[in-house]
Amino acid sequence: MSDNSTEQSCPSGHSCSSCGGKCSDEKRRLHENLLGVKHILLVMSGKGGVGKSTVATNLAMSLALQGFATGLLDVDLHGPSVPKMLGIEGSQLMTDGEKLLPVETANLKVMSIGLSLSSPDQAVIWRGPVKYSVIQQFLADVAWGELDYLVIDAPPGTGDEPLSVCQLLPQADGAVVVTTPQQLAATDVSKSLSFLKQVNYRVIGIIENMSGFACPHCGEVTQIFSQGAGEDLAAKYGVPFLGRIPIDPQVCAAGDSGKPFVYSFGKSATAKAFAQIVDAIVNRG
Questions:
Q1: What pTM was computed for the model?
Q2: Nearest C-alpha neighbor of 162 from the set 80, 30, 44
Q3: 18 against 223, higher pLDDT
Q4: Which neighbouring-strand residues pair with 71?
């Protein structure tokens, strides 16, 4: 850190010179806590309704199913849906005396603000600095242990949560951006790519979700909407296109029932699409 860095504003909104070095201590504690994590992937989108949390959850589960030690951190503080999709709502958070222990399910370590709420209907009403502090605590004070991959699910948009992750984890592998096939959605999602460029964060690639309809009986994929917006975005911004994930009615049913789709329907065309995308991420150059 340069000598004049203490005069700069820290992400928490305070002057680093006024915190007596606390910011540096917290960053060092975060860094030390994540020493056992080999790869960190941020999943984001500039638009809601594209199935981003579903993609993040099933990507994490696909990694776990391929034998990778995997964690899933839900930083959607206002609409945490990961606990519901994994069937761990109501799980009690425990500590080892020093750190919070993530909830483990199907070989996946999970942490979400939803696990600490008294009710799924409870609203979280926080401003930016508080959200930054909570995300920092999830990274520094949760016993993630040894992981091959930590997948971070951010809320839609380019606000406090994804910005906090980018500021706290500049060493991360980068971001996976989710869109749907429609050009209107891609226009909004392009804001995420612009955001990542502005904060100098690597783009691992783009996923086109809800791309075609996969018949749950025969597995044939039929194009029911337009397609190609994700691939066009990737070409425009010069980033990898990771693949397409077709619509499957069982994805929604699995999420509502708390049974991870790729875990329960591993032979489906959609689960195979997730597996191929995982291969593209794992084997990227």
A1: 0.89
A2: 44
A3: 223
A4: 109, 150
Token pair, residue 12, equals 């928490």
DSSP designation for 15: B
Pairwise CA distance, residues 47 & 158, whole Å: 9
- Spell out the domains of the chain, with CATH numbers in brackets: 37-282 (3.40.50.300)
DSSP string, 71-118: EEEE--SSS--HHHHTT-TTPPPEE-SSSEEPEEETTEEEEEGGGG-S
Strand partners for 213: 222, 247
Q: Which amino acid is at 50?
A: V
Under DSSP, the state recorded for 249 is: H
Task: Please list, in sequence order, all residues whose beta carbon lies within 8 angstroms of the beta carbon of residue 45, skipping any fewer than 6 positions away.
Answer: 52, 156, 177, 178, 179, 189, 192
State which amino acid sits at residue 56: A
C-alpha closest to that of 255 among 42, 51, 67: 51
User: Each residue of 127-160: pLDDT tens digit?
Assistant: 889 999 999 999 999 999 999 999 999 999 999 9
- As a whole-number percent, the residues of the chain with pLDDT over 90 amount to 68
CA–CA dist 91, 253 (Å, integer): 21
Mean pLDDT, rounded, for 190-209? 96
Q: Which two tokens stand for residue 282?
A: 């794992």
271 with 265: CB under 8 angstroms? yes
Q: Identity (one letter) of the amino acid at 131?
A: K
